[in-house]
Amino acid sequence: MSGSPGMNGGPEQNGDIWDPGMHNERTRLAWQRTTLSGLACGLVVARLVSSASLALAIVVGLASIATTALLGWLTMRRYAVNQKNLHAAHPLTDARAHLGVTVLLVVTGVGALVYVFAQFDGATVPRTDR
Predict the structure, then answer these.
(1) How far is the C-alpha of 60 from the C-alpha of 21, rounded, in Å?
(2) For residues 22-55, b (16+ Cβ closer than 10 Å) or e, as one string?
(3) Which of 68, 69, 76 shows the shortest CA–CA distance to 27?
(4) Phi, then psi, of 102 in degrees rounded to 5
């Protein structure tokens, strides 16, 4: 079993319980992918909403960009703090980035709902006059 944890001088065999930096690095990369995906979804929804209301599309787009910028900053800050804390054996950071993702999802969802409701004029058939 050469691929199992702890074999061939792995962290468990050396007495360490974590791989210095790698877990934190993977987490940072996952948050970056999440942030970029959220931005893409938010901008697609803003584009769709523009057919119903240009002002609302601008609001949804700007909210998506602002939330993504905040989330990107939180991700970089969280990585730096966690990296320092891991090596100093201190507790890791809180979950503020999770709040940022929640806000981004809510903004995108509200924009998508506005788009869906704007496509219907109280009838069951979508408008096709656009």
Answers:
(1) 36
(2) eebeebbeebeebbeebbebbbebbebbbebeee
(3) 76
(4) -60, -45
Residue 9 has pLDDT above 50, yes or no: no
Cα 81 to Cα 19, 42, 93, distances in angstroms: 17, 28, 7
**Euclidean distance between CA atoms 77 and 60, whole angstroms:** 26
pLDDT digits (tens, 9 = 90+) for 10-21: 445 555 565 666
User: What pTM was estimated for this model as a whole?
Assistant: 0.61
How many contiguous H segments (helices) and E segments (strands) does the chain have?
3, 0
d(CA 109, CA 44): 11
CA dihedral 43, 44, 46, 50 (to 10 degrees): 140
Segment 74-83, tens digit of pLDDT: 888 888 887 8
Q: Do residues 73 and 48 make contact, with C-beta atoms less than 8 angstroms apart?
A: no
CB-based contact 68:104 (threshold 8 Å): yes
